[in-house]
Amino acid sequence: MNIKNVYILDDRAVLYLNGEDTIDFLQNLISNDINKVNNNNSCFTSLLSPQGKFLFEFIIIKHKSGYLIDCEKSQADSLFKQLSMYKLRSKVEILNLSNEFVVAAFSYEKFLTFDEAKDIPGFTLKYREDPILLDPRNKQLGARLIINLEKLYLSLKKLDLHDSKLKNYYSFSHKLGIVPKDLNKLQNKLFGIECNYEELNGIDFKKGCYVGQENTARIKLKNKLSKRLFAINLIDGKLKEGESIYANGSEIGKVLIENDYPFALIKYLDKNFDEKLIFKTKDANLNITKPDWIK
């Protein structure tokens, strides 16, 4: 990313949770440890089905007496309903602030120019009372600013940041191997741990129980993780959601996101998986590369 570029993530939504039961409420639901989140640290996490399948992913940021949730806008209404369903009689207020707040992303290099900045994924500081955090998934994704829409452009001017094409941010995220959008297409189709959440700092295996914890822990402890979500690089042809991917005539994976920034669930330990190969579907040829942050 260019140090002067900023990307207005208009596909993101912002929820806000507060109330005296909020910490316990979130701790019992999410795959990460809410106690990691404070004024100087934010975290990436997921909300899974009871079977451990992917439902939602989001970033949690401490804000005033509660927590901001930065999630994909296409998932916001469903996430709001899911959280409300789990709330029951808990003293928790859930608000959708997407009409008031906006998320903007800028480079890792720019983040390090702030006096208080630390080179730690998730590290959070305040700029004129608004949180700026180094992306907790992977610091190469840069920083995120969550700010009231009315203050956005004045703050960007003061920071000497210039609005850039969002597709460039999407492409960068895709190249890095991190899903930038269309998360709804993953729901209930793979386990959360298959989304690489351990490597993206989204699962805490030392915390207590949460929704989907049993299968997540079993896959980890019994070394059963044989499939992972990898980015697809289309060479030619057309992809279709749900179709099989082949290598040497053997099925090696399945397309889950077929749009501009495609991803597939890949049997990455299979003997037929070789990053040097050209993989095939019925109507397409493609490359698949394991991200360098997966060892």
The major β-sheet equals:
6 strands, mixed
Per CATH, the class of the largest domain reads Alpha Beta
Give the SSE order as H and E letters: EEHEEEHEEHEEEHEHHEEEEEE
Q: What is the number of E strands?
A: 17
**How much helicity do the residues have?**
10-25%
**Strand arrangement in the largest pleated sheet:** 8-9-10-7-1-11
Name the shape in a single word: globular
Number of domains: 2
Secondary-structure content class: alpha+beta
**CATH architectural group of the largest domain:** 2-Layer Sandwich
| Nearest-integer average pLDDT | 97
**Uncertain segments of ≥5 residues (pLDDT<50)?**
none
**Separation of termini?**
24 Å
Which percent range describes the beta-strand content?
A: 25-35%
How would you name the CATH homologous superfamily of the largest domain?
Probable tRNA modification gtpase trme, domain 1
Write the layout of secondary structure elements.
Layout: E1 5-8, E2 12-18, H1 22-27, E3 43-48, E4 54-63, E5 66-72, H2 73-87, E6 93-96, E7 101-106, H3 108-111, E8 124-127, E9 130-134, E10 143-148, H4 152-158, E11 162-163, H5 166-176, H6 213-221, E12 228-237, E13 244-247, E14 250-257, E15 263-266, E16 279-280, E17 284-288
Parallel strand pairs: 1-11
Antiparallel strand pairs: 1-7, 2-5, 2-6, 3-4, 4-5, 7-10, 8-9, 9-10, 12-15, 12-17, 13-14, 14-15, 16-17
